């Protein structure tokens, strides 16, 4: 019987937003499973550090590329520069910026979320997808959010971008209908990463308050589920997985110890 790890051994995995959090954790999990990695992100020094750590720990090949996924030409140049076939694309790059009402939110926050969470994700799907279709194999895993399944106050644009990820994932599966290309999503709730610090523009105290009195998910929790999604038999396509900590029951229902 073929094991999960054996299904992944030797696969080439491209992970966007790999400099921290879920992306970094996913890189370690795929390396442990015997995959070669292509990691992208904006912070070159972080990528270099992660590359060194993974190669010394797991002995697997790691290629790194530093660019902003919002820049379509940079995405195109990156894809044209890689020679290896991408077996698995983990579209992880994304962010929340601001937590404000629709009538007073910052336009720059909106642009950052739309350009990263939607356009950046689409850039990679559009540029990596043709080769997958041509060879009739591959797997695209988009990182969504509970915010893609329900909305909440002051999060209109972030929720909108993650609803878009959900719709794009579903429609892309239909676009690849009749091929062996798989399309999936993983949609977490509260995960203790840099997410809230980024949302609150570096206000670490405010970011810590998001997780006060409750046990959030970890980046490793989500990385395990990404790996599980990727390692199913070739005829199995997991469309989406909504993952919440026990202390969370919806976007806005969070149990906190007093």
Describe the overall structure.
With 258 residues, the chain is α/β, with parallel strands linked by helices. It has one domain (4-243): Rossmann fold (3-Layer(aba) Sandwich), CATH 3.40.50.720. It has 9 helices and 7 strands. The protein has helices at residues 4-8, 21-32, 44-58, 72-81, 107-135, 156-175, 195-199, 204-209, 219-230; strands spanning 12-15, 36-41, 62-66, 88-91, 138-143, 181-188, 240-243. Helix 6 (156-175) links the parallel strand 5 (138-143) and strand 6.
Write down the overall geometry: globular
- The radius of gyration over CA amounts to 18 Å
Q: CATH superfamily, please?
A: NAD(P)-binding Rossmann-like Domain
Low-confidence stretches: none
Number of H- or I-type helical stretches = 9
Give the overall pLDDT as a whole number. Answer: 96
CATH architecture name:
3-Layer(aba) Sandwich
Order of helices and strands: HEHEHEHEHEHEHHHE
Number of domains: 1
Topology (elements, then pairings):
Layout: H1 4-8, E1 12-15, H2 21-32, E2 36-41, H3 44-58, E3 62-66, H4 72-81, E4 88-91, H5 107-135, E5 138-143, H6 156-175, E6 181-188, H7 195-199, H8 204-209, H9 219-230, E7 240-243
Parallel strand pairs: 1-2, 1-4, 2-3, 4-5, 5-6, 6-7
Helix pairs in contact: 2-9, 4-5, 5-6
Key attributes of the depicted protein:
single chain; 258 residues; alpha/beta; Rossmann fold; 7-stranded parallel beta sheet; 44% helix
How would you summarize this macromolecular structure in one to three sentences?
The protein is of the alpha/beta class and 258 residues long. It is built from nine helices and seven strands, in the order αβαβαβαβαβαβαααβ. It holds the Pfam family adh_short.
